[in-house]
Amino acid sequence: MATYETLLVEQRDAVTLITLNRPQALNALNNQVLGELVAAMTAYDADDSQHCAVLTGSEKAFAAGADIKEMAGQSFAEMFSGNYFAGWERFTATRKPIIAAVAGFALGGGCELAMMCDFILAADTAKFGQPEIKLGVGPGMGGSQRLTRAIGKAKAMEMCLTGRMMGAEEAERAGLVSRVIPAAELLDEALKTAATIAGMAPLAALANKEMVNAAFETGLAQGIQFERRLFHALFGTADQKEGMAAFVEKRPGNWTGK
Ligand code: CO8
């Protein structure tokens, strides 16, 4: 397995655990982190033995944003011609499931990275925010769009305009995170959840991710049509036959990923 300077990557059975590892900068995201995360996700997606990923940070910070020191001196021409940070689209192109396990600060690009994952499990210490306005800018990794879709206009607008942080309880109430977990149990719970997902029929997992994501890209009728076609298509898989036979025979499914 490849090794990285800003990430720790390990495989626990069928689960890939990726830990952001720039403690000196509270896991701030720079071009190197971006390149390494894309490489790690591409490797995970291509590895037939891996079926769910967990992305996490440290106890203090999931990620405190894009690296302000890397960006500070850049001109418009450099940002625009280099299409700064456009590479994140390759992260969101990952087809297999990714869980964000967030403890501590998830600010700016850190909050946006968590929202690029399929769902967020938050420690009770998690703090989410889009404080870019305090730096004279705004979200740039999808925050204005994904946060608004996740928690609605009123709260997203307030978060972006004031830069205030939102704690884990509020984030759960608002629908940004799926569950809040005591900090000491966060990683175990995230790995357990990932193992549950990794235990599902792999093609069904890909299809479920695509279906839910389609809700953000289509109108209702088109989204339902897409869902139905994917549902139909899964009847071409051996795992659908196996899954339904296993139910009737009252035993667990034995998946082949075919
Ligand atoms: N970038 C670079 N370095 C950082 C960052 C960051 N975002 N956040 C923290 N660090 C560094 C600090 O500079 C410090 O380094 P040093 O010891 O060398 O001074 C070290 O991490 C520890 O940080 P603090 O001493 O500040 O720790 P505190 O516990 O006092 O405070 C905070 C923690 C509250 C999280 C504080 O560090 C903070 O406010 N950080 C910045 C948060 C922020 O503004 N994030 C938004 C950044 S902009 C962004 O994310 C834009 C995304 C879109 C880009 C897309 C481009 C197209």
Automatic annotation (TrEMBL):
EC number(s) per entry: 4.2.1.17
Domain of life: Bacteria
Stored InterPro entries: ClpP/crotonase-like_dom_sf, Enoyl-CoA_hyd/isom_CS, Enoyl-CoA_hydra/iso, Enoyl-CoA_hydra_C
Gene3D superfamilies per record: 2-enoyl-CoA Hydratase, Chain A, domain 1, Lyase 2-enoyl-coa Hydratase, Chain A, domain 2
SUPFAM superfamilies given in the database record: ClpP/crotonase
Catalytic activity: a 4-saturated-(3S)-3-hydroxyacyl-CoA = a (3E)-enoyl-CoA + H2O; a (3S)-3-hydroxyacyl-CoA = a (2E)-enoyl-CoA + H2O
GO molecular function: enoyl-CoA hydratase activity
Pfam families listed in its UniProt record: ECH_1 (PF00378)
Keyword annotations of the record: Fatty acid metabolism, Lipid metabolism, Lyase
Keyword Lyase: yes
GO biological process, one term: fatty acid beta-oxidation
NCBIfam families recorded: PRK05862.1
UniProt function note: Could possibly oxidize fatty acids using specific components.
Similarity section: Belongs to the enoyl-CoA hydratase/isomerase family.
Name assigned to this protein: enoyl-CoA hydratase
